[in-house]
Design brief:
- This protein is mostly beta strands.
- It has a single domain (2-458), classed as Porin (Beta Barrel).
- 3% of the residues lie in helices and 52% in strands.
- It has one helix at residues 2-17, and strands spanning 29-32, 40-55, 60-62, 65-66, 69-87, 90-101, 126-137, 145-154, 192-201, 204-212, 222-223, 232-233, 241-249, 271-289, 292-311, 318-330, 336-339, 346-347, 364-368, 370-380, 391-403, 410-420, 426-440, 443-458.
- The strands form three sheets. A 16-stranded antiparallel barrel has the order 2-5-6-7-8-9-10-13-14-15-16-20-21-22-23-24. Strands 4-3-18 form a three-stranded antiparallel beta sheet, with no helix packed on it.
- The chain is globular.
- Mean pLDDT is 93; it is low at 1-18.
- This is Short chain amide porin.
């Protein structure tokens, strides 16, 4: 009986996490394997469709055509997650999907040109998560401590709340990407294979993992001056990485049933959390000076604060959401990565003007040795009616990046609005973002803008 009550409470808390702002959703797509509902399987499916109008970096070509502006529509995420529990102690999680398919890229490995297997067609479905989990110490009301351990391809990668964020309930249109500092280099879409431990002690939540990073083999450019040495990802037979995140929850306690941290509760919870995390991996990058190759460790640290509170008159159901995080990144000397989400641009060989250091399309300096400060805030506006068809949440975000490889820091802004048709389960998000265009290490030539509209549905 106690086990049944415990399992049901876990299910209810998890269902609550995945139903922000939508009381009609309930337990979702859950299939009971016994009459009591203590053995079950649950599925979560979601699609995020993006429409964009983007100013391109100078020197960009798309489909053999020189271009300075681009409009398109693409598939940002198409995902299916399933998990099953036949005992309060055992759980299996599987998460598959695709990302970033456009009309001209994002297709399956080996696809090229046009036709049946053109560049943007038939993307390869792959695993995002696949792990087994065992509850060593079950959570109980009379005991403050809990502990679960698991192994596989997992998302318990430490560092920050955003590093382990759910993609279902962002306040902004997406994560800022630098919250996943290893993305698609020594990880598989923000995951590594390893062993993790998670649990709580009263209001303190902890997550720890030890992992085998995916192999990288970029060759560093040899330079004659130490100031010009630049680290690149090269871990070969990778050494074990270690990661952790600790968070104190002052008000309501969050579910840690799955690793995915909520971005905005829309006033359904009262949250004030302070967290800190790390990721470290020895001999993970290399640089070359006068023919001598040097290995460098990756040491990443972060501290963050999350606030999500109902505000004003209860009948109006207003809420404030705020999040701020500071990242200190060290990948080795002058390490830098340029990334653009669903970037369709390639280099225009005929362009004679000042090119962007980051490259063509919507590439920008995204991750590097140095520091990043990111802050977002938004307000869920009051109900206009007792049962409004649409809830509105304007928001803004600010990013400050200061990388060692660049002599000038950048300041970036995002402004947008969520239109909730059914909480996060059905919403439309519109957002304008800018990015810096460096034409030299000490010169930001301009800031380019991008207007995005997303349609999200998840069940």
């Amino acid at each position: 009986m106690k086990k049944t009550i415990l399992l049901l409470s876990l299910l209810l808390s998890f269902g609550f996490v995945f139903s922000q702002g939508s009381p009609d959703y309930g337990g979702g797509l859950k299939f009971n394997l016994n009459p009591e509902g203590t053995k079950y399987m649950r599925f979560i499916a979601w699609n995020q469709i993006w429409m964009r109008s983007s100013a391109m970096n100078p020197g960009t070509m798309i489909g053999d055509e020189a271009i300075s502006k681009q409009e398109d529509i693409g598939l940002r995420r198409l995902r299916l997650l399933a998990y099953a529990q036949i005992s309060p102690r055992y759980m299996i999680v599987t998460h598959i999907g695709i990302n970033n398919q456009t009309f001209i890229n994002g297709g399956a490995s080996g696809s090229s040109g046009t036709g049946g297997y053109g560049n943007g067609k038939k993307p390869g479905l792959f695993f995002h998560d696949a792990w087994n989990e065992y509850a060593v110490v079950l959570p109980k009301e009379e005991k403050p401590f809990s502990l679960s351990m698991g192994a596989g391809l997992h998302y318990y990668m430490g560092l920050s709340r955003l590093t382990m964020s759910s993609t279902l309930n962002y306040m902004t249109i997406d994560a800022p990407i630098f919250n996943w500092p290893l993305i698609e280099n020594s990880d598989q879409f923000a995951r590594q294979i390893g062993i993790f431990a998670k649990g709580k002690y009263n209001r303190l939540e902890y997550r720890l993992s030890i992992n085998k990073p995916f192999a990288t083999n970029q060759v560093p450019t040899d330079v004659a001056e130490a100031d010009l040495a630049r680290a690149v990802d090269n871990n070969q037979n990778a050494k074990w990485s270690k990661a952790g995140y600790f968070e104190y929850q002052f008000f309501d306690k969050e579910s840690n049933f799955l690793p995915f941290k909520v971005g905005s509760y829309l006033g359904t919870k009262k949250m004030f959390n302070v967290g800190a995390g790390f990721y470290t991996a020895p001999s993970s990058t290399k640089s070359s000076l006068n023919g001598v190759v040097e290995k460098h460790a990756t040491n990443l640290f972060a501290g963050d604060v999350f606030l999500d509170l109902p505000i004003g008159n209860k009948e109006k159901k207003m809420a404030f959401t705020g999040y701020s995080v500071f990242y200190s990144y060290d990948f080795g000397p002058n390490y830098i990565r340029n990334i653009g989400i669903m970037n369709e641009g390639v280099v225009d060989p005929t362009f004679t003007g000042g090119r962007a250091l980051a490259g063509p399309g919507n590439l920008q300096p995204m991750i590097g040795t140095g520091s990043i400060w990111y802050t977002q805030a938004g307000i869920l506006l009051p109900n206009a009616n007792e049962k409004p068809k649409v809830r509105i949440q304007p928001f803004a975000a600010y990013t400050y990046k200061n990388f060692d490889a660049l002599d000038k820091a950048s300041n970036q802004f995002d402004f947008g609005t969520n239109f909730f048709l059914d909480g996060h389960h059905a919403k439309i998000t519109a957002q304008y973002s800018n990015r810096p265009v460096y034409t030299a290490a000490d010169k930001i030539d301009s800031y380019k803008g991008e207007f995005l509209v997303q349609l999200q549905i998840y069940l």
